[in-house]
Design a protein that fits this description.
The chain is mostly helical. Helix content is 70%, strand content 3%. The protein is elongated and about 65 Å long. 29% of the residues are buried.
């Protein structure tokens, strides 16, 4: 019986880890494809993706570009279970809940001084070459909205959620995949949030924040899907070549 509170992707990762340790998958062996694993464990493909990323972080498997995932020949790294506990999808879900209400409250107590600070962060995010500074400006923009509520407890919660993004190896790995695919902070969505805050409309501020964060989820899903699709295309191409070879004998 899985431990109480263990997430679905963790159960899948644990089962594959046990299969590797038992020798079912030998070092250097290629793991089954994402679709096959999803059917085997009766879970969604995004769950399989998170499980595979967790196994990568632990050093049990490695991704070979355009080929798939293979069991490594090295001893796995020790990574605390808590560090792997937060994935990008779970984190953003929490942000939708907390940051939506934070934006709604901030809209009711906004001042010219607070708006000026947010405008300055918008200009920083709008730089021509998105990089780590732009990402940090994105973080400060969201934390500044929390600060605008004049409630230190709310600001502390929002800062904690953002800190989790950088402390959890699983979360870091997933956002890095999104960044490599060219996904950067959406300036137009941040502008819409700021406009809603300017208007003092709590409902609009909540709605624009929710919309922005839901699109962040879509971006991460798209980034991991592209990687999975690339592996699938390579698998199909390899199978086609093998069939062509066999029928030409």
């Amino acid at each position: 019986m899985p431990p109480i509170g263990q997430k679905l992707y963790q159960r899948v990762a644990a089962a594959i880890s046990e299969a590797i340790e038992s020798g079912q998958y030998a070092p250097g062996a290629r793991l089954p494809g994402e679709r096959d694993l999803a059917e085997e464990f009766s879970v969604s493909r995004p769950t399989i993706r998170e499980a595979m990323i967790a196994l990568e972080i632990r050093g049990l498997v490695e991704a070979r570009h355009g080929s798939g995932l293979y069991v490594t020949n090295t001893a796995p790294a020790e990574v605390a279970a808590l560090e792997l506990d937060i994935g990008a999808f779970e984190l953003i879900e929490a942000r939708i809940l907390f940051e939506g209400e934070t934006a709604a409250l901030a809209a009711t107590v906004m001042t010219e001084e607070k708006l000026a600070r947010l405008e300055a962060l918008m200009r920083e995010m709008s730089g021509p070459n998105p990089d780590m500074r732009t990402e940090q400006a994105d973080r400060r923009f969201h934390v500044e909205i929390a600060a605008c509520t004049d409630n230190s407890a709310i600001r502390g919660v929002i800062e904690m959620l953002w800190d989790l993004r950088y402390r959890s190896p699983l979360c870091v790995h997933m956002f890095a995949k999104a960044a490599r695919s060219g996904i950067n902070p959406r300036i137009d969505e941040h502008r819409a949030i700021l406009d809603a805050l300017k208007s003092g409309d709590a409902h609009a501020a909540r709605a624009t924040m929710h919309g922005h964060l839901r699109r962040v989820i879509e971006d991460v899903l798209a980034a991991t899907e592209l990687e999975a699709m690339e592996r699938a295309r390579t698998e199909i191409s390899a199978r086609r070549s093998e069939i062509t070879r066999r029928i030409s004998l």
